[in-house]
């Protein structure tokens, strides 16, 4: 499984799977995080598919974590409305994951990264067409969330006496 390569899965299949998982497990922050990542990757890559390790057939897809596995997949272009829907859904789900598990730095990191991606996107479009809660995202807010993610992660990492042979990523 170490050399397993992710495969593209259509978001119209994996989003309902993740949503069904959340419906059955509403207190599982990881479910909201995965759903947020799916929407985030659809927004950031402007793609109708996301790379997953289990092709999205499982209830909670195993979304490829690293960017090297999320190269833009060639699909039909998304409209600005579709992109904003994915952006909004990603924000909502990251916030819910953080609400359920506020000490998980990864959830904060995902939200900060999404905000940064949005700021880059906002430079290219007409901001007046966006909802106020999205239009008002600024870089300093992303920086605050990055710092929270760092603080949460460094606290956990400093508790380690040694780093596992498999590396920090295995933690």
Radius of gyration: 16 Å
Provide a count of the helices.
6
Average predicted confidence as pLDDT: 81
Biggest sheet layout: 2 strands, antiparallel
Low-confidence stretches: none
Please identify the oligomeric state: single chain
Q: Numbering strands along the chain, what is their spatial order in the largest sheet?
A: 1-2
Helix content: 40-55%
H and E order: EHHEHHHH
Number of strands: 2
N-to-C terminal Cα separation, in Å?
Answer: 17 Å
Work out the strand percent: under 5%
Instruction: Write down the overall geometry.
Output: globular
In a few lines, what is going on in this structure?
This protein is mainly α.
Question: What tags apply to this protein structure?
Answer:
mainly alpha; two-stranded antiparallel sheet; 171 residues; 6 helices; single chain
Structure description:
- With 171 residues, the protein is mostly helical.
- It is built from 6 helices and 2 strands; from the N terminus they run E-H-H-E-H-H-H-H.
- It has a two-stranded antiparallel ribbon.
- The chain is globular, with a radius of gyration of 16 Å.
């Amino acid at each position: 499984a170490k050399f397993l390569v992710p495969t593209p899965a259509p978001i119209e299949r994996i989003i309902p799977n993740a949503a069904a998982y959340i419906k059955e497990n509403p207190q599982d922050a990881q479910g909201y995080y995965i759903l947020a990542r799916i929407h985030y990757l659809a927004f950031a890559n402007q793609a109708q598919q996301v790379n997953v390790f289990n092709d999205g057939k499982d209830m909670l897809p195993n979304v490829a974590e690293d960017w090297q596995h999320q190269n833009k997949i060639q699909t039909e272009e998304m409209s600005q409305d579709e992109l904003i829907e994915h952006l909004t859904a990603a924000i909502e789900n990251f916030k819910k994951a953080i609400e359920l598990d506020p000490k998980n730095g990864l959830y904060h990191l995902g939200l900060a990264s999404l905000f940064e991606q949005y700021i880059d996107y906002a430079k290219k479009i007409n901001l007046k067409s966006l909802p106020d809660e999205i239009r008002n995202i600024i870089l300093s807010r992303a920086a605050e969330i990055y710092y929270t993610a760092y603080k949460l992660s460094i606290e956990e990492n400093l508790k380690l006496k040694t780093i596992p042979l498999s590396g920090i990523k295995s933690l």
